[in-house]
Structures are given as C-alpha cells and as structure tokens.
Amino acid sequence: MTLMSENKGTVILGAEEPCAEIMEAYSEIVCAFLEDLSGWLRRDKEASAYPDVLSVAFWCRRANIERMKRQFEDGKLHMGRGLLFHITPSNVPVNFAFSYFFGLLSGNSNIVRIPTKEFPQVKVLCHGIETILKKEEYETLRKGTQFVTYEREREINDYYSNICDGRIIWGGDETIYNLRQSPMRSKAVEVVFADRYSFGVIRSEAVFEAAEEELEQLASLFYNDTYLMDQNACSTPHCIFWLGEKTKEAQKRFWDAVYKKADRYMLEDIKAVDKYTQLCHLAMERTDIANMDISSYGNRLYVVTMDTIPEDLETLRGKFGLFFQCDIEDLKQLKAVISPKSQTMLYYGLNKAEIQGFLKECALRGIDRAVPFGKALDMGVIWDGYDIIRSLSRVIPIE
Q1: pTM
Q2: Which of 235, 259, 300, 371 is buried deepest, with most CB atoms within 10 A?
Q3: What CATH code is carried by the domain that includes residue 239?
C-alpha cells in the first residue's frame, strides 16, 4: 500500500512514521532477517532474471553475514546511533538495498530514499523486503524502516536531515553539495560516497600466455564488472592499462574474447546511438583522442587506444561497451593521474605484494581498493576507505 505524507515524499514501504529503534551491531534479528530475505530472493522467479538482484541475495546469505560479523567483533559494545537517512544513487538499481543493510547491521533504524527512476530490480527487491518485514518476528525492524521516493526537493531533504542521527549520501558532487545545505543535529554523523573513477591494470604476458579456458574466464569476469551495469557503477573500470611486453598481441586476444562475451549484452538502439554519439564527440572535441586508434568490434564494443595517459583521465568514461586503453612500462606512471576521485584498481597478472608496494611507495590520495577482475561490483563493509558499520555505530566502553 502506498501512503502519502505531506512534504515527506511518497512512502513505498515500512512505517509511515519510523521509530528510532536502536540495536546492537550485527544483532541476531537483523542477521535472521537478511537470511530470510536471501532465501526469498533466491526462490523468486522474477528475482532470478536479474544477476544484480541475485548478487544481493548471495551477499545476504547467513554464511557471508557471519563472516563479516567475526571480522567486526573486537570485544567492545557497538550500538546504533538511532535513525539514519539514506540518499541513494539513481544509476545503480540495487545500491539502495545495500545502504539499507549497512544501516541495519550497524544497529540503526532507516529512512531510505530510493531512485525515482523506475527499475524492475528496485521493485523486486522492495517486494522481497516488504514481504519479509511483514513477518511477526520482524515487527521491530518494520517499525524502524521507511522507504520513500521524491524528486529533488530541499524542503523534504531538510525534514529528514533534521530528524536523523546520521546521513549516508551516495552521489555526485552536486548531490552532496545540495544535501549539505540541509542541516542535521549537532551529534549526527555523515558518510559520503562521492563520484569516483576506476580503472584496470593487466600484465600483457599473463594474457598472452593464458590458456583459452583461462582467457574465456577473464573475459567473463570483465563482462560482469562492466556490461552488467552499463558501466555506470563507480567501481567499473573505464580504462585498461597494459603493463609489460607483447601488448598488441595480448590486447587482441583479450578484446576478441570480451567481444564474444558481449554477444549476450542487450544493446537497445538508444544505447548504441548514445555510445556512437559519445565517440563522435570525443573525436571532434579532443585532439588527443581524434588521432588515436579507435577499434570497433561491432556495436557492442569500441576500444580507444591512447599513446599517452591524459592528465584528465577521469573525464574519459565509457558506457554501453566503450573502453579506453594505454600501454605503461611501470605502475608508477599512474601516480600523476590518480586523485582522490580514483576508487578501484582492478588487476590481472599482478600480485598483491607489488600492488601494495606501489600504493605505499607512491603514498596516493586515491585508490581505496584493489581487487582482481570479477570483483568490481562486490560490495563490502569497507568501501571508499570507510569502515561503514563502525562509522554508523557507537562504541560504548565498559570498564
């Protein structure tokens, strides 16, 4: 049932006036709720049609939550802060659910603003969450949950910001600036996940020497990191840096394999036109791109090869199967273009020791995570440099 609240947006599910129910971090009722939701999503036929929804179900399973709980436990008492206000992005359909889960796991009640753009994944997840919350044993969670939707309205932002004990903002610089015009209580905390840029590094020899089965697996992992979200996720790599020798041969093997995987990608006409238009704009507006090698593998894959790393690398963002690439001789060459906006470094053919050495020696202000290809979209409780659960809960020392 959809309820209307004057100047508070449209309530999609949960309580019309949520209570600030406070719990211990990783409380049993929350762990049980997530387990039930995981089972419901895995059984639901409609949910099974969306890989990103199934990834949510996989994340919520009891084994994963218990693993995170063990890593969190430090012998101290961690309690929620009260009521959290979540502003979630409109370009990643399932993000709102993860933000809600973080609020629950940190022991808080939650008001979640979901995207105004209609996504089938949002409807499926909301249906699942609402179904589980209706169970008698989760009445406390239901009373402390509210999902709302509304356009960008300062008055509504003011209202929710004023009553919250914490605010979580996912969005670009403009969104963050606008939300910060809405004051919060003096002790309220704020966690901000701003616009970020991600890239990949591949050792050429590793691709050149890879067996066909391994190469096919790499292409499949890369496809999941990029095409599944139309390259919209902040952790999706837009540019691939090739480290080592035999890069031309390695690039051909890699992109040929990716193109085969991209055959399953649903490329609507509007996406194809949008991508081609973006490429034309790049060719017309940027002299450093116009003279580069632009390879077309059909409508599902364009690759722009650059001779040098542009200073404004983070402005080169592909979508719907448009990628950039550049050869490098040493990881240190990336130092000049890595900024606080740099989030995820995906890698293949490198080991953890050399990545750690690079990050320590260069003392970078950016790169908050380095993960192998295939893990770009894996949501963790450590994100953008935040320990999210600890940031959203209180530590109560008992001596």
Answers
A1: 0.88
A2: 235
A3: 3.40.309.10
